[in-house]
Amino acid sequence: MCTVSYYASHEKVVITSNRDESISRPLAMHPKWFIYNNIRLCYPIDPLKGGSWFVVNGFGSTFVLLNGGQAKHASKPPYRLSRGLILIDIASSKNWQDFWVHVDLLDIEPFTLIVYDNNTLHKCLWDGKSKYANKLDAFRPHIWSSVTLYDLEIIEMRKNWFSIFLERNSNQVNEDQLLDFHSMTKREDLRNGLVIYRNGEMLTKNITQVILWKEKFTMIHHDLITKQKSLITEFIL
């Protein structure tokens, strides 16, 4: 929920997410299938709130959440509803773009939403006062970092790390290499590397990745604490 990358080739799309969380927050449950609003959803579960940060529906539409909007904000709980539950509502709507336009987000903590749907890529943002939505180039690689944990200088530095990685692997970039990027890049930098451990309070707890082909997808979930891995493969409706 705090670092997300996107990579597309002619054959597939790969979206990978590192989830940085408080060390005291309960471990996420591995991905499972659910039915919500008559829509099938596959996602790992945050047991504290019951929501998620990474959802794929039965049509292959993918929704990934990052904490924070345009700039770092002061958290002022309690909020009306968890962002992870809002994500499930969006992913299970019949038309997520209409839902985004009309959903009431007042008293919801700021967040950024990355959406891959029907061969298009979108970035949606709620800053606590206003909603924004932009269509992005779905044929270019992208990386995003949460503004709640990383200042703008570090975010730009991480973009540079991603560019260097892509240049070094220009002949072939696959899901395993992207997973290595998310798990090994600047591993010695426990504060701003892709896998963090900050002052015994905040750490990267898991890495979730989805590989989307034309007719199917695979979701892979790596729990970095228990060292357990789960995999779900499903044909797209």
Can you describe what's shown?
The structure is a single chain. The protein is α+β, with helices and mostly antiparallel strands. The chain has a single domain (3-235), classed as 4-Layer Sandwich (Penicillin V Acylase, Chain A), CATH 3.60.60.10. 18% of the residues lie in helices and 39% in strands. The chain contains 4 helices and 14 strands. Strands 1, 2, 10, 11, 12, 13 and 14 form a 7-stranded antiparallel β-sheet that branches. It has a 7-stranded antiparallel β-sheet with strand order 3-4-5-6-7-8-9, covered by helices on one side. Strand 7 (111-117) and strand 8 (120-126) form a beta hairpin. The longest helix has 17 residues, at 152-168. The protein is globular, with a radius of gyration of 17 Å. The chain starts with a strand and ends with a strand.
